[in-house]
Amino acid sequence: MKSTKFTPASKLSKAEIDRKWWEVGDFFRRNSLWMLMYCTGCCAIELPPAMTSAYDMERLGMGPMATPRQADILLVSGYLSLKTLRRLIYTYEQMSEPRYVVALGSCPINGGIYHDSHAVINKLDQYIPVDVYVAGCMPNTESVMNGFVDLMDQIKRKTAVGWKKYHENNAWYKENQKTSLGEVVVHDEFHE
Amino acid sequence: MTNSMNNIEFVNDLVKGTVEVVKSEVIDKFQVSFEIKKNEVHLLLTKLKSAGWIQLSYLSAIDWLEENKFELIYILMNWEKPVYIQVRTKIDRENPVMDSILPIFGGAKYYEREAHEFFGIAFPGNPDYEKQLILEGWDDIPPLRKDFDPKAYSDKKFPQRDYPQDYSVKDPKESKQAKREARKQRAESLRGGKKQ
Ligand code: SF4
Questions:
Q1: Has this prediction a pTM greater than 0.95?
Q2: Nearest C-alpha of chain B: how many angstroms from A118?
């Protein structure tokens, strides 16, 4: 008697089956993205119109998420001082994988208008890998949305591999974090 | 009945009766400023507090590099008579020390820590003025002193992004502009619009 269970006709190798599953996973992954919004700077003001009825990012399957462990995207909006960077790295390392980083504005790209400040870092991708940069000071909401669509496209084409890079080049990232921050440990009166 | 002009006169009389004023200025009808000597600050602040200026709104410093002085500014607010009083005093820039006003205004604790961190002013009497408050792992002279060069520090400390020198398209065959033009013309002709 023929089994009613579905049995694939072709003989796929294990690697091929794994890849197929990963593709299926990617489809769902890119259509349900939860963002952890690390709103450090003025660019964050572009997010309310992106989330509310004007652009309604939920139609892309995206939504805000409160905790790093449940989020897929780390959204860095704006300038990062050394003090904030320390917390950002904490947050990034708590996120589950695969994890993506989207950086808004010119500040994470090259320091923006704070490029000569004593506290603001000039290059975010020295410290954590960035998948999508949205340029502009501040970027308008269309380009923010476009950045998310680009990220989905990258997930589809399997080029959003920042989280893998972070594993492969971990020593390099750690070294950079150390040279700028000393060490990534918070020492203040609330953490002692 | 009190009005704001009476309030300012009242403050003037009060301050001038207590300490020697180096310079005074009426900024607007809600704000007056007095510059006094360093050793009379505590006396004046105590007097003002008992006269109703119970809130220390702000304490900050200004770096007068050419005069080689730091200026400390204490801003007090009275909720009965709406006048802000700025008490200003100049201290030596080479060896900046100012006794803490913690016994008078407890809220000065954090302002003094901030002034120490950003200008390097010492506040003996405040038990933890030397604790770090905002900057973490700071390794240079205090950053808001005028002789600190933030650009040089940033260049030294943070890697800058390098950009390739020539980013324009050299090869005309690869020019996106020309391709875009061609596409536009073709679209026009298909629509039967502009005739070539
Ligand atoms: S890029 Fe411009 S708008 Fe965005 S955080 Fe920097 S200064 Fe603010």
A1: no
A2: 5
Whose structure tokens read 């704070």?
A114
Strand, coil or helix: B64: strand
- Inter-chain contact A121–B148, Cβ cutoff 8 Å? no
Contact B159 A189 (CB under 8 A): no
Residue ranges covered by each domain of chain B? 4-159
Partner B contacted by A17 (CB < 8 A): no
Cα–Cα dist B91/B32, whole Å:
21
The domain over range B4-159 is classified in CATH as 3.30.460.80: yes
pLDDT tens string B48-65: 999 888 999 999 999 998
Among A83, A121, A122, beta carbon nearest to B136:
A83
Q: B136, B156, B157: best mutation site toward chain A, by most A Cβ within 10 Å?
A: B136
- Please check whether residue B77 is in contact with residue B84, taking contact to mean a CB–CB distance below 8 angstroms: yes
Instruction: Please give the distance, rounded to the nearest whole angstrom, from the Cα atom of residue A189 to the centre of ligand 1.
Output: 30
pLDDT tens figures, B87-124: 999 999 899 999 999 989 988 899 999 999 999 999 99
B20 within 8 A of B2, measured Cβ to Cβ: no
Q: Which of A158, A160, A164 is nearest to A147 (CA)?
A: A160
Q: Quote the CA–CA distance of A168 and A187 in Å, as a whole number.
A: 29
Place of tokens 């992004």: B161
Quote the ligand 1 centre to A107 CA distance (angstroms). 6
Structural domains of chain A, with CATH: 18-181 (3.40.50.12280)
For residue B193, which phi and psi values (nearest 5 degrees)? -80, -110
pLDDT, tens digit, for every residue of B6-35? 888 888 888 888 888 888 888 888 899 999
